[in-house]
């Protein structure tokens, strides 16, 4: 699969780049060739990829390699920063300002997921204490209004449609209806259309003028290819988009369209769809998206974290212990404390290219964490070093000391045992990773 | 006049000859260089055209490499022939031997399955066949109503259960109904599903199994709808759906837009799945047999 290839290929190039003081143009070009391939394989538009790479090259050549980074990481860091910048830098939010009812329009190609997204938005906003109204204006696709009506029922939000009326009139009346019923947000679902369909694009322009939406959101399928730029540009030119919603991100598409769309419209992705259920709508994280597009695990944040370097020593020590298998309850606690600063161990391991997928996902719950910490803190030093001495009476003491139950103590011991077993598998993986190239961890 | 036997004459002649050769060489070299430069530019342009048409990095590189070695020296023509060769090999037609054929339509969400079924039912009706459509998308809101409207337009019978019911049972009933009523075709609509959803792919396999058990040899066709706007992920879709339910043909939808769907070249190359139909709009008539030549014309137009 392309995914593994890229990691291996970059690893290959970057191994050669290792251990030099300044990045030369040749180094950078070689690395960027691989990055270009990665971007194109992820469906980033050719022109967008070229522009991005040109900017990276400009910044990277002659760049001093920081002490805490390899040359490879230095190049990647710049790629990551440029990508994140195009992707909007930070997580953006919907703008629901202005006098209620605040209208919102969803537009896009056929089958991009507008109707489902309208339902998700209704749920999302209801949870924030809003009172949305769903308005169907797709009079073309068979049963489209009915689909939104069903979705509205599932979202427990009222629904508006006027059979026989033209879309613009429906939108206008929907807005009035919301005003009368005291709804504060109006979600207008529109029919899917091709950006070159002059008649239907004109209809949207007219609708926009009629209802003056606070947000005009382009709904884009994450699987979209090169054409995403033309689609987005046309919609933006005609309608003045305010944001983008990326759908079907729960699949395995790398989602380069996100970068393309933002590059040509300058509009942020505000939300992403991650499933068919109505609660599967999440905020968009530019940094995660950059990593996903590059197909490299969360490498970019690894670079940042390593760069922060405050924890670097500790990570190295942890890694050493992982390798030498002397992972005690103290380490376990240390790791749990780091969870708050840096994300849990499984995430940390996920940051290592090539390893992320090999490690089973461990769910870490914040409440569990507090309890676990209390329990470990109630153990004696010997107990922490050698948990096998903890018998029934010690367990009772620890439970009492930490204000928990014996079951809780058992759970912690089991969790620790699991983590240890998980970590014991690592040295082998590391060897295989070395064989496969692509070890960027230092 | 140069005197015969003059010592320099042979030298002179040789010099003149070599000069001529050099000049030929130089002119030839320059001409070749210019042609080469022009060709290089052309290759670059063509490569860009393929990449922006979603052909993909690997496939583009391979096509260009092959075309550079081809007999035809015109880059564009050479490349067109290369692609045409690949696509002609997979240009396919629906194979409906009768007397009762089952067509199962699958694909990820929103690719145009239900619309295609409406168009297809209409086409088969036009051939005088009695058609049953099975509303086995029991999941998507109003999916059944959408199909019901298409069935009405096409003049096909509809078999439906309640929303949320077992899709395999709908398919089963549809096959039975078709047999009982003496129909010639059953078209089964299925819910859109991401190929990464293991349990939903299992559900699809079950529908397939139930149909196969009910009618030996069925389903005669398993059509995968691919949206022309999809990028490289279409390869994954093709791979997984092919493995799960043995896709027999691809329907390329939304070709009336600006997307050129170049990824099917790679799909043709890797999986050899026949491409059978093309969706060209939202109307009931907007369904055409896939034409490799038309496709290549859109992908790499010949300059006139
Ligand atoms: N322009 C154009 N639009 C199409 C074509 N085929 C389908 N559509 C539109 O694409 C949208 C989705 O089509 P559907 O037929 O509902 O797709 P589906 O695959 O059944 O969708 P789900 O059942 O939700 O997965 C609708 O708006 C259709 O009108 C086509 O060939 N061209
Ligand atoms: Mg459908």
Give the % helix of chain A: 55-70%
- What's the helix count of chain A? 20
For the CA atoms, what is the radius of gyration of chain B?
28 Å
Low-pLDDT ranges of chain A: 1-6, 351-363, 427-442
CATH topology (fold) name of the largest domain in chain A: Rossmann fold
SSE string of chain A, helices as H and strands as E: HHHHEHEHEHEHEHEHEEHHHHHHHHHH
Subunit arrangement of the protein: heterodimer
Tell me the domain tally of chain A.
3
Summed up, the helix count of chain B is: 10
> CATH first level of the largest domain in chain A: which class?
Alpha Beta
Bound molecules: guanosine-5'-triphosphate, magnesium ion
The strand line-up of the biggest sheet of chain B is 3-2-4-1-5-6-7-8
Question: How many β-strand stretches of chain A?
Answer: 8
The ordered H/E elements of chain B are HHHEHEHEHEHEHEHEEH
Could you estimate the helical fraction of the residues of chain B in percent? 40-55%
List how many beta strands of chain B DSSP finds. Answer: 8
- What portion of residues of chain B belong to β-strands? 5-15%
Describe it for me?
The complex is a heterodimer of chains A (442) and B (304). By secondary structure, chain A is an alpha/beta fold. Chain A folds into three domains: 4-86, Four Helix Bundle (Hemerythrin (Met), subunit A) (Up-down Bundle); 102-293, Rossmann fold (3-Layer(aba) Sandwich), CATH 3.40.50; 302-435, Orthogonal Bundle (434 Repressor (Amino-terminal Domain)). In chain A, 57% of the residues lie in helices and 9% in strands. Chain A has an eight-stranded mixed beta sheet, with helices on both faces. In chain A, helix 5 packs parallel to helix 6. The longest helix of chain A is centred in the last third of the chain and has 19 residues, at 406-424. Chain A is flat. Chain B is an alpha/beta fold and 304 residues long. Helices cover 53% and strands 13% of the residues of chain B. Chain B is built from ten helices and eight strands. Chain B has helices at 7-52, 57-68, 75-90, 113-126, 143-154, 167-181, 198-214, 233-245, 263-271, 292-299; strands at residues 101-106, 131-136, 157-159, 185-190, 221-227, 249-253, 275-279, 287-289. Chain B has an eight-stranded mixed beta sheet, with helices on both faces. The longest helix of chain B is centred in the N-terminal third of the chain and has 46 residues, at 7-52. Classes of the chains: A alpha/beta (442), B alpha/beta (304). Chains A and B meet through helix 2, helix 6 and helix 9 of A and helix 1, helix 5 and helix 8 of B. Guanosine-5'-triphosphate sits between chains B (107, 109-115, 137, 140, 143, 192, 225, 253-254, 256-257, 279-282, 286) and A (110-111, 141, 192, 194).
């Amino acid at each position: 699969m392309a995914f593994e290839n890229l990691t291996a290929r970059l690893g290959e190039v970057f191994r050669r780049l290792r251990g030099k003081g300044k990045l030369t143009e040749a180094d950078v070009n070689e690395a960027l060739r691989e990055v270009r391939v990665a971007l194109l394989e992820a469906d980033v538009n050719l022109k967008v990829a070229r522009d991005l790479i040109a900017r990276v090259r400009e910044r990277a050549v002659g760049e001093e390699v920081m002490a805490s980074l390899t040359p490879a990481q230095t190049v990647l860091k710049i790629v990551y920063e440029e990508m994140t910048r195009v992707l909007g830098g930070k997580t953006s939010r919907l703008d629901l300002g202005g006098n209620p009812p605040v209208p919102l329009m969803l537009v896009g190609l056929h089958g991009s997921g507008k109707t489902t997204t309208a339902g998700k938005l209704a749920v999302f906003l209801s949870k924030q204490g809003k009172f949305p109204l769903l308005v169907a204006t797709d009079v073309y696709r068979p049963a489209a209004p009915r689909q939104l009506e069903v979705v509205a029922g599932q979202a427990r939000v009222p629904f508006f449609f006027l059979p026989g009326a033209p879309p613009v009139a429906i939108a206008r009346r929907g807005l009035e209806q919301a005003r009368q019923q005291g709804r504060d947000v109006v979600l207008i679902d529109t029919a899917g259309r091709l950006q070159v369909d002059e008649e239907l694009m004109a209809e949207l322009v007219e609708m926009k003028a009629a209802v003056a939406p606070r947000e005009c959101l382009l709904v884009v399928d994450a699987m979209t290819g090169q054409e995403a730029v033309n689609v987005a540009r046309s919609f933006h030119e005609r309608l003045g988009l305010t944001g983008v919603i990326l759908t079907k991100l729960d699949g395995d598409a790398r989602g380069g369209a996100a970068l393309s769309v933002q590059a040509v419209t300058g509009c942020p992705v505000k939300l992403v769809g991650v499933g068919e259920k109505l609660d599967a709508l999440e905020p968009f994280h530019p940094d995660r998206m950059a990593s996903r597009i590059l197909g490299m695990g969360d490498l970019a944040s690894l670079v940042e974290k390593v760069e922060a370097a405050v924890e670097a020593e500790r990570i190295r020590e942890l890694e050493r212990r992982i390798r030498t298998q002397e992972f005690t309850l103290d380490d376990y606690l240390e790791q749990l404390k780091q969870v708050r600063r840096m994300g849990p161990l499984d995430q940390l391991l996920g940051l290592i290219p090539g390893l992320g997928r090999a490690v089973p996902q461990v769910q870490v719950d914040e409440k569990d964490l507090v309890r676990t910490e209390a329990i470990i803190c109630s153990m004696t030093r010997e107990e922490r070093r050698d948990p096998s001495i903890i018998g029934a009476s010690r367990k009772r003491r620890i439970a009492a000391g930490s204000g928990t139950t014996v079951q809780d103590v058992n759970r912690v011991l089991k969790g620790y045992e699991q983590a240890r077993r998980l970590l014991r598998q690592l040295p082998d993986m590391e060897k295989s990773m070395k064989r496969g190239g692509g070890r960027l961890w230092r | 006049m140069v005197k015969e036997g003059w010592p320099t004459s042979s030298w002179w002649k040789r010099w003149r000859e070599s000069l001529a050769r050099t000049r030929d060489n130089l002119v030839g070299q320059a001409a070749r260089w210019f042609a080469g430069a022009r060709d290089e530019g052309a290759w670059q342009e063509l490569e860009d055209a393929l990449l922006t048409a979603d052909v993909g990095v690997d496939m583009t590189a391979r096509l260009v490499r092959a075309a550079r070695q081809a007999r035809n020296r015109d880059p564009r023509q050479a490349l067109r022939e290369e692609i045409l060769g690949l696509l002609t090999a997979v240009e396919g037609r629906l194979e409906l031997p009768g007397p009762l054929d089952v067509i199962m339509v699958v694909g990820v969400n929103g690719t145009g399955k239900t619309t295609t079924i409406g168009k297809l039912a209409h086409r088969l009706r036009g051939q005088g066949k009695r058609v049953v459509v099975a509303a086995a998308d029991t999941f998507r809101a109003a999916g059944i109503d959408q199909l019901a409207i298409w069935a009405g337009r096409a003049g096909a019978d509809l078999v439906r259960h309640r929303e949320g019911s077992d899709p395999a049972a709908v398919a089963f009933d549809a096959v039975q109904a078709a047999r009982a009523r003496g129909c010639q075709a059953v078209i089964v609509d299925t819910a859109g599903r991401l190929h990464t959803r293991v349990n939903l792919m299992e559900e699809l396999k079950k529908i397939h199994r139930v149909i196969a058990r009910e009618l030996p040899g069925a389903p005669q066709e398993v059509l995968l709808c691919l949206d022309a706007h999809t990028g490289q992920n279409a390869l994954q879709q093709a791979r997984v759906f092919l493995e799960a339910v043995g896709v027999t043909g691809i329907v390329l939808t939304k070709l009336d837009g600006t997307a050129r769907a170049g990824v099917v070249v790679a799909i043709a190359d890797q999986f050899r799945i026949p491409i059978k139909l093309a969706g060209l709009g939202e109307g009931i008539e907007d369904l055409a047999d896939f034409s490799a030549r038309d496709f290549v014309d859109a992908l790499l137009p010949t300059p006139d």
